[in-house]
Amino acid sequence: MLSALRYRAGQVVVIALLAALVTTCAAFAPLYDRAMQQAAVAVALEDAPSALRDLQIYGPDAEWSLRRTAPDDLVGLLPSTEHLFQKPVLGSTATTRLDLDRLAPVEGELWWRAGQCDHVDIAVGSCPAASRQIMVTEAEAEEYGFTVGTVVKAKAASLLATVDNADPEIVHYEIVGIYRAADPDWWQGLQLDGRAGVAASDLPRHDAWLTDQSTFSTPTPVLPREHAWVGYRLRTDEVGVDELAALKTDLVQLSAMLAEDSAGTVGGSPDAGDPSSGIVSSLPALADRVDAQIQQSRTTVPLLLCQLGLLGVIVLWLMLLAATDQRRSEVVVARLRGRGTAGARTLLMRELLPAVLLGVVPGVGIALLGAWPARALVLPGDPPFELPRGLVAAVLIAVAMLVLVTYVAVVRVAREPLGTLLHRAGGRRPGWRLGVGDAIAIAVSGAGVVAFATGSLTGALALAAPALLSVFVGLVLAHLLPPVAARLGGTLLYQGRLRAGVSLLDASRSIMTRRTVALATVAGSLAVFSVCGLVVGDRNRELAAEQAIGAPVVVQVQSASLTDSRLKVVETVLADLDPDGKRVTPVVRTASPSGQISTLAVDPEAFSRIALFADGAPSQKAWSALSGSSREPVPTITAGSPAEEEAGEVTVLGVDGVHQKATRVAVADRIPGDGPNVTVVDLSTATALATPDYESSIALWFAAEDPAFVDTVVDTLASEGVFAADTRTLAGVRHSLDASIPSWSLWLGVVVGFAAVLLAVVALTVLTVTGWRVLALDLTALRLAGVDQRTVAGIPTYARLLPVLVGVIAGAGCGAICAALTLPDIPLLAVPPDVDVTDLSIPWAAVAMTTAGCLIVLGAAAALLGHAVAAMVRFDRLREAA
């Protein structure tokens, strides 16, 4: 066996390399898929706020359970995953409601957390060190006139007092310090400040009070909504896909256990919607989101790599055909010595199968090496090196495919009659007749394409549909092109056009033409299909980002004042900084209690100019019709179904949350920056008819991402007491959409497209190397017949360019059709948007550029190979035929 491998060392190397490529495609899929999963976890944890990715456990309500729970009792409830968190922080919390001689009592939260004073800035006074001592924020001290030494009173729990038929006990708290909020991550989402004086649910609020641990023990009575608390901060660098799944399982079980314990208290859970009885963590939701992306990757990655692997198998098949044809004489000798068909088959398998299997281990190694730049350079989060469980199965499937292809190629030659074996292979009489194998291949691939187009082919089998279409078209062209070339070549010879006529006749009689056109069709189809997926995915992420944010920059503002007062400050500042409204515009949003319907009050002229309407925007006439009215019915532009229409009368949600009569002046496909059911009204008209309620929000929409101007506006508003609560940019939203498994999967198409073209070049080289001697003899004979050197030198080039041209153009058409059929089933976004902005139209410019690129690369390769064959035309070649 080793001597056979050494005898044809060059051929063995080529076969092993092609087998390695097929194995690489199979092995790279699970490696890349696993790396994407780990990257998705890293991105999800990085993007999630600390309050969502960390864990908070609340004990039972002491008022309802008639007992206090120590924070220590909540530690150790996650025995299998607690090592994934930092050392827990113990704490307790309660609600305080105090009477400050105002129209309504002031309500807020009272907290103790171990080590809390190390994570705030104490401006005046000291940290609480005894029972019922508290610290308040600077804003609260200013709002309510508190100073160090002030004593405030609040009621204890009312349920126990009711049981004893008495009034709730009054608890006195002494202010010993005034602090400023700091280190928000340590506080795990707890809003320490920004609430003093701001109404919520018709009650004014106070900021978080910080107290000593002893406040939550005797002799202090049980406080309203008093809970023990434990906070865990996640070690994000130690959490991968498996750990996140384990965390989800543990947290779901813990939540169920705590809910069962809470149900056994007096009166059950006081508020099922409140997070203060159970756990607070978005880790289970994050796990579900990552798992959804993992399911999406099981469509795109196999779709691309299976097609590339199929192309590799086709090229390997061509090489094996050439290798078995070279061994025809050896098969004849074996048959004549009585070894029969089985002996001849064994002889060929012993020579070719080791060469094929020789490429398996290097193929796995190449896949492992290829996964390194993907992990280190392409994917975020530094995914670790892993050998996923699916790697072994993928390699075994690849090995089985390689053995099957080798066996079929061997059987093809071993079973041929001796008379056929004694003749040199390589020529073919032009005609329309199909061989049995080709007929079966065309029938199977054609049936698969029809089944997919009619919806009968679903699931994993549907992933093969694009490859089946290109194989079907390539095989059909392979049998149509030779007879057409023969007839056209004869016509050109009759007209005296020698070079073109002989080139077409040479192409019609060479089996290389059939193989080249089929190969070019598959390669062109795969390249175009990959580029279509990449471009369409990029386009849809851009559209989704524009719809999600609404403008290049959006800043949400807040203040301690009511929405109406805040809006007046905003309008005054913007009138000074941008009097024409060309750079920024205010948008007031009011939503229904369910959040399904919303109203945007805008400046129509500025909003129509700044909002990111990709298409379907209302006309300028419609925007102009919004302004000018100061009474009902209010002119509106709607998208979706935000209005109620009854007896011809339309009502929409006003900025005060109350429905108003309206008249619809236009219907938009969508309104950027909001949900599917939106009403747009003129801001001045809306505020003249109603005062925005406290739940209405104000946002500033900027026309461009100009950090200097944005900072100027934000700083000016801050000087007037209006602060930026959140700033989002179009680039940031787009980045979050790009950092997802669907995006990374489609980027794999770039590699697949390049690899497909490279494989086609390798296949052209293999076909030329295995058939150049026959062609060189034919061209030498033409020289003896008196054909000039220039004409003879151009024949092999033109004969190779024809099938490449036909195959690539046909493949481009196949790729575009495959994209149109398959893209609706390919995940383009990690999370489906609330407003569907999907655009699956074929990017014809990208298709044309890819087709041109394939033609240039494959055409250049065909021309160079043709010139190489022409250089081999020498008169001493005739001795080889003697």
Structural notes for this entry:
The chain has 882 residues and is of the alpha+beta class. Strands 1, 2, 3, 4, 5, 6, 7, 10, 11 and 12 form a 10-stranded mixed β-sheet that branches. β18 (649-653) and β19 form a beta hairpin. The chain is elongated.
Radius of gyration: 37 Å
Tell me the fraction of residues in β-strands, as a range.
Answer: 5-15%
Task: State the share of residues found in helices, binned by percent.
Answer: 40-55%
Number of helices: 27
Keywords:
single chain, 882 residues, alpha+beta, ten-stranded mixed beta sheet, 27 helices, 54% helix
Blueprint of the fold:
Layout: H1 2-7, H2 9-47, H3 50-53, E1 55-58, H4 62-65, E2 89-98, E3 106-113, E4 120-125, E5 133-137, H5 138-144, E6 151-155, H6 158-163, E7 170-181, E8 199-200, E9 203-204, E10 209-211, E11 227-232, H7 241-263, E12 278-280, H8 283-326, H9 328-336, H10 340-357, H11 360-378, H12 390-414, H13 418-421, H14 436-453, H15 465-494, H16 498-509, H17 511-549, E13 553-558, H18 563-577, E14 584-591, E15 598-602, H19 604-610, H20 620-626, E16 634-639, E17 644-646, E18 649-653, E19 659-667, E20 678-682, H21 683-689, E21 697-702, H22 707-719, E22 723-729, H23 730-738, H24 741-784, H25 789-822, H26 844-871, H27 878-881
Parallel strand pairs: 3-10, 5-7, 15-20, 16-19
Antiparallel strand pairs: 1-11, 1-12, 2-3, 2-11, 4-7, 5-10, 6-7, 8-9, 13-21, 13-22, 14-15, 14-21, 16-20, 17-18, 18-19
